[in-house]
Specification:
The protein is of the alpha+beta class. It is built from two helices and eleven strands. Helices cover 16% and strands 40% of the residues. The strands form two sheets. A six-stranded antiparallel sheet has the order 1-9-10-11-2-3, with no helix packed on it. Strands 6-8-4-5-7 form a five-stranded antiparallel sheet. The protein is globular, with a radius of gyration of 22 Å.
Length: 153
């Protein structure tokens, strides 16, 4: 009888370790893709360099390039740019968009994503890995351009 219990316990242990449903879940990052115009709503404070993106509101994401460099832009959701369209910053529409910008995160692309003096909407893949969150700009000439944020509670 003791031997049967031992075999049963060992079988249960092997089953628990090898069965994907019973084993401990892997810590996979939560991945979400945000299309142009879709709102990005962080639930925690995001920090990269000197930029601190506050939670509790939603943002539209853009890429802006001016004479200072190229930036990932967190703007008011009311700021709208049709997918694929460039808006010149020197036009009335550009001036209106500038009034909706909350945060500029410097990025260093390997190639020009947009011409100098313009802003455009982008597709972004978000990967939440707990203590960090990465935003990867996709669909641009600079593949896999990623900004990694430290997450604070």
């Amino acid at each position: 009888m003791r031997r049967i219990r031992m075999i049963a316990a060992m079988s249960l242990f092997v089953l628990a370790v090898t069965s994907p449903g019973l084993a401990a879940p892997a810590n996979k990052p939560r991945t979400v893709t945000f299309e142009p115009g879709q709102q990005f709503c962080p639930s925690r404070v995001l920090v990269v360099g000197k930029v601190v993106v506050q939670p509790g509101r939603c943002y539209a994401l853009f890429v802006l390039r001016d004479n200072r460099g190229t930036f990932l832009v967190f703007a008011s959701p009311e700021a709208k740019i049709p997918p694929g369209q460039l808006v010149r910053l020197t036009t009335p529409a550009g001036a209106k968009l500038r009034g909706h910008i909350f945060y500029l995160v410097p990025i260093v692309p390997t190639v020009a994503i947009v011409p100098v003096g313009t802003i455009t909407s982008i597709t972004v893949r978000s990967e939440d890995e707990g203590p960090r969150l990465s935003l990867t700009i996709i669909g641009t000439p600079s593949p896999n351009l990623t900004v990694i944020f430290t997450v604070r509670s």
